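User: quick one, sequence for these tokens?
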């Protein structure tokens, strides 16, 4: 009887692990907007809220993943009164689809009122793994990885779970040997953390790559963003991250 119980336990454990390579993760994205303001533009603090919080979902299988914002009703927290203007902080409509099997990525990005469809190969960020530091996120034992992004002046710390064997994660923070469950940018300036998980195969129709918009490569999109920022005299406010 004891042997039978042990065999059943091992079987259930194996099945659980097998199911953890596909499902849906919900992330909370929290950004400190005041910390992102340049030193010469601190007066904008009165016009924008200190924090912006929104939620995103990541649908994933061993072959692909899709990351997009969760549509929610407008909340007073997303609105801010300042200087006679009512400013709405939106999570945006960007979508990031990764074809892991064929190493392609298709991203739908909105910039300056125009939509772009970025079709390019999957890139691997220069992560440095730290095997000695561990952290528990959502009950998963996670390893630490660090990325010093000199282009955007960001120090990025990611915590990934090797027991979720899919090299994906929130936004651009992927390509690690396991699912990224938490990201900390510039020591709390922006934090993205997984909140809930559903270990159920996403519907095929929900995993479609985004469509619509001007088709460009990642390099061409960065050039468009850089050109517009030059016309605006620099960033002039909250940072726009380019990846």
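Assistant:
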């Amino acid at each position: 009887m004891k042997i039978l119980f042990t065999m059943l336990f091992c079987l259930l454990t194996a099945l659980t692990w097998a199911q953890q390579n596909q499902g849906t993760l919900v992330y909370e994205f929290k950004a400190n907007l005041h910390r992102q303001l340049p030193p010469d533009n601190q007066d904008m603090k009165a016009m924008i809220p200190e924090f912006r919080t929104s939620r995103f979902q990541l649908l994933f299988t061993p072959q692909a993943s899709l990351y997009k914002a969760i549509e929610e009703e407008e909340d007073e927290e997303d609105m801010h009164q300042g200087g006679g203007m009512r400013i709405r902080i939106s999570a945006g409509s960007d979508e990031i689809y990764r074809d892991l099997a064929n190493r392609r990525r298709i991203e739908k990005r909105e910039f300056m009122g125009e939509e772009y469809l970025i079709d390019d190969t999957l890139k691997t960020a220069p992560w440095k793994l730290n095997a000695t530091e561990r952290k528990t996120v959502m009950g998963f034992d996670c390893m630490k990885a660090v990325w010093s992004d000199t282009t955007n002046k960001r120090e990025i710390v990611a915590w990934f779970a090797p027991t979720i064997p899919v090299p994906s994660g929130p936004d651009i923070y992927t390509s690690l040997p396991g699912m990224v469950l938490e990201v900390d940018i510039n020591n709390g300036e922006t934090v993205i953390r997984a909140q809930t998980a559903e270990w159920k195969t996403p519907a095929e129709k929900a995993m479609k790559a985004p469509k619509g918009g001007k088709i460009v490569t990642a390099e061409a999109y960065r050039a468009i963003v850089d050109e517009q920022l030059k016309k605006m005299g620099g960033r002039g406010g909250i940072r726009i991250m380019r990846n």
